[in-house]
Amino acid sequence: MTATHIPVQAVVEFATAAFAKAGVPEVDAAKAGRLLVESDLNGSDGHGIFRLPQYVGGLRSGRVDPNGAIVVDIEGPATAHIDGGNALGHLVMARATEVAIEKAKSQGAAWVGVRGSNHAGAASIWASQMLPHDMIGIYLAVGSNNFMAPWGGFERLLGTNPIAFAVPGLEEPPILFDMATSIAANGKVQMAQQRGEPMPVGWVIDRDGNPITDPNKADDGVLLPIGDYKGYGLSLMIGLIGATLNGGQFGREPTDALASNTGQAVLALSISRFGDANAFKRRVDAIARDIRGSGRLPGVDEIRLPGDRASAVREERTRDGIPVPPSLRAALDKVADGLGIAHLLPA
Question: 257 pLDDT exceeds 50?
């Protein structure tokens, strides 16, 4: 069976209703619902409505606090530290980006670190928060669970630790780069599990270095880093800056059963502190056009920039709706039945 496309607003309202029924205050539930769907609009299907069962499960089990207090507990002119109070990660990061933007308006640049947070969807949605303010955004996070090993090892001590950059153009779409430090994000493994599809060779290996392609056996192995030892090093550095610096969990530190204590960080950089913002964006446009129009190898139809696919998917899904495959529909129906809310799709 093929996926059914659901209007964006219907998906937002479903997520909002689920969060509210799971105990999140109404205003916060609406905010989290909108932000969750941003991942789907960018084409990050493993981080959007697909994750709702995980989020609701965390709220109902007490692992995530529906009323968690999000507090700026350390602050300087261009820096801040936020304790997320174990609230929904989307709400914690919304607060962090708001603080970063306000500080960057006055200081030119701002760095905000976070502890006590949770999974917050695709990294790209947080770097992108800076774009409407003529700012460059950078976001990094430490995975709530470890799925990678140090290069040459097998013990799970590292997360998939994503990083994202967002740079605005004037007429061209923003350049938006979002990557995990593993070859495949764990969300893709979970999607393969849900859909009953094998994983490609090269995503996961067992303790003897042999490939694992059955996603149901992924927990018996480790995800491989991008670029071999380089991806391992990048994951390590993101962990030190995103978690250790902020007091989040990292490495062998034990995981509290009731709190993931995810560490995150965001940077907002005001373009106007380096010259005219529109002039910079025109130069970004020119570079983007040069790259797209550059010489191609045989068999290559087009050269794309980071963010091109996200922009195209956003336009398509805003118009046609968000695709919900049958396996996801079943999972969302189960959430709806457990909460006593209407199904996203009529029976």
Answer: no
Those residues with Cβ within 8 angstroms of residue 27's Cβ, 6 or more apart along the chain or in another chain: none
Residue 255 clears pLDDT 70, i.e. is over it:
no
- φ, ψ dihedrals at 30, nearest 5°: -65, -40
Tell me the pLDDT tens digit for each residue of 80-139: 999 999 999 999 999 999 999 999 999 999 999 999 999 999 999 999 999 999 999 999
pLDDT in tens, 142-200: 977 888 999 999 999 999 999 999 999 999 999 999 999 999 888 888 888 888 899 99
Residue 114 bridge partners (DSSP): 82, 264
Give backbone dihedrals phi and psi of 62, rounded to 5 degrees, phi first: 90, 0
Scanning the structure block, which residue is given the tokens 């205050």? 25
Q: One-letter amino acid identity for 243?
A: A
One DSSP character per residue, 168-210 reads --SSSPPEEEEE-SBSS-HHHHHHHHHHT-PPPTTSEE-TTS-
Q: What is the separation of C-alpha 183 from the centre of its chain, rounded to a whole number of angstroms?
A: 15
Domains with residue ranges and CATH for the chain = 1-67+320-347 (1.10.1530.10), 68-182+228-306 (3.30.1370.60), 185-224 (3.30.60.50)
Radius of gyration of the chain (CA): 20
Would you call 218 helix, strand, or coil by DSSP? Answer: helix
